[in-house]
């Protein structure tokens, strides 16, 4: 219990988490591809809860999982090493 109180008390003095987000839209053979990535620059208060965040991330859907992307410039040509088609269905919004 003391650990929980200590973490939340210290968290109020730490900065917010800052991230660099990359959102790339690529066109290949008339088809549109989209890639997203996120790199944490400043961990901030979330660093105190890193163990809890790892447990929460295990339950996330693959679609919302973001990973680091290389630095891209507008108009740059890229090589695509593969693609994957996933059969999914949309779900209704939460009430």
From TrEMBL:
Its EC number is 5.99.1.2. Keywords: Isomerase. Pfam families: Topoisom_bac. It comes from the Bacteria. InterPro entries: Topo_IA_cen, Topo_IA_cen_sub2, Topo_IA_cen_sub3, Topo_IA_core_domain. GO terms for biological process: DNA topological change. GO terms for molecular function: DNA binding; DNA topoisomerase activity. Residues 1-95 form the Topo IA-type catalytic domain. This is DNA topoisomerase domain protein. It comes from Shigella boydii 4444-74.
């Amino acid at each position: 219990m003391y650990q929980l109180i200590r973490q939340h008390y210290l968290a109020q003095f730490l900065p917010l988490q800052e991230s660099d987000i990359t959102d790339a839209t690529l066109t290949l053979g008339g088809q549109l591809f989209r890639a997203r990535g996120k790199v944490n620059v400043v961990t901030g208060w979330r660093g105190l809860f890193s163990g809890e965040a790892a447990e929460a991330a295990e339950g996330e859907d693959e679609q919302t999982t973001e990973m680091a992307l290389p630095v891209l410039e507008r108009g740059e040509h890229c090589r695509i090493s593969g693609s994957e088609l996933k059969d999914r269905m949309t779900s209704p919004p939460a009430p």
